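Troubleshooting entry. The earlier prediction with protoporphyrin IX containing FE gave an output that would not parse, so I re-checked the input for stray whitespace and re-submitted. Clean input:
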Amino acid sequence: MSKFLAASIGRKFLMSITGLFLVAFIAVHLTLNLLLIFDDSGELFNLGANFMATNPAIKIMEPLLGLGFLIHILWSFYLEFQNWKARPVKYDKKNMSGASSWASRNMLVLGALVMVFLIIHIINFFWVIKFDPHTMSTIVIGGEEMEDTYTLVADLFKGSVAYCFFYILGGLLLGFHLSHGFWSAFQTLGLNNKYWMKRWQAIGYAYAIIVAIGFAAIPLYFLVKF
Amino acid sequence: MADKILKKLNIKVWRQKNASSKGKFETYTIENISTGSSFLEMMDILNNELIEKGIDPIAFDHDCREGICGTCSLYINGRPHGPDTEVTTCQLHMRKFKDGETITVEPWRAAAFPVIKDLIVDRTAFEKILQAGGFVSVNTGGVPDANTIPVAYEDAEESMDAAACIGCGACVAACKNSSAMLFVSAKVSHLAKLPQGQVEAKKRARNMVAKMDELGFGGCTNTGACEVECPKSISITNIARLNREYLVSRLSR
Ligand code: HEM
Ligand code: SF4
Ligand code: FES
């Protein structure tokens, strides 16, 4: 098995499986986060956040998600390092823009930038909710007392234009990463042929655009409205 | 279209004495080249001039000069086989260049394709991949009758499309990872699609991919550059098939 995961297609298999797992997570994450901009009282989002925080299934998924990120990131560096070694002498003059997309050639750069975003994003919210919850205010919705996650998020965006732009950028970077990553994952898994090529690419672009615009819309909303 | 004359061109070309020497770029000027001449004819004219000046001529690979053997290589102005599409270098013509231009000519760059001399690289690695699985076993004896093994039209078409690969290595040269996946996928596909290829089918993808890795080619990240630069337009859907065959064979064990 370790031989398989070190082989070229095995490396890519792990990238695509973890990548698709992250794609599924991002879809859930975005759906829930959009509640932020559809209810200014914060009630809907707080209910959603509380449901996720207390749901046993999510408790199981949380470490799996961390593992997924970890494997995806570690393997991406391993994979790119192997590929980099395959061309010890570089070309003097390259003209690659006509033959492949910029995103496809810069997946590691895009991924690494997403990773930087991710670290700051975790410090901003996940860390506070998980390890410093006493610093958060609480709110009572429907007779149940819960942490006021809405205020935690809203205050960050209301209080800092810089953070708003940072989060908009994060969404766009992820969108670019997925504009190639989505269909690439299906190609890697062998789930592609001459009919599905165009379809996966179209679905991938649509997903990437929804992710980019969706995530960017949240800070943008706070930036414009407050 | 009448041919024009390119009055002056600068040819910036990689010179390397042998496999172990370091190599560097040299720039030569060449005058009065017809836009109707092929790129390799231009190189021949340049080489004649170099010989007259007592300079070692530039070594480059070529054979059929009709776009079918895959011997000619050359990374020209940042693209394998130069600025034209769906052609080999021998089918590239000087009308694709402008007067006064500096044309950069480099060898294929890949760890698995070491430079032997100037622009010639050693592509034995492709041979080794084929030896690892790019064959079918047949019974000796008389020639079988025609049409004894039925092949569906679709399968025959796909197989023949993949079989168009001439093993030139432009896919490796074009790929940012120096991956040989398009070549390997073409060789796996043209056999996988035919009944004759079924005997070794289970092992073929595995053995060829293992050999490809061992020889130092990179892995595929699906940029698609290979398909665009391939002179025979081999489709990357073949790579999906190779991935499928490989994963099924690895995971079913
Ligand atoms: C956080 C840091 C991340 C890094 C460093 C990273 C890096 C990479 C790299 C280098 C690749 C391989 C390039 C290629 O196959 O073309 C890749 C592929 C991929 N990534 Fe990421 N990524 C990150 C985050 C994400 C996230 C958050 C998602 C999903 C929402 C994601 C989804 C994918 C997908 C679907 C693929 C395609 C797999 C394949 O081509 O087979 N990545 N990533
Ligand atoms: S797949 Fe295309 S580019 Fe690669 S070796 Fe075959 S003909 Fe050349
Ligand atoms: S010399 Fe044979 S293909 Fe160019």
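This one parsed fine. Residues 56-85 of chain A form the longest helix (30 residues).
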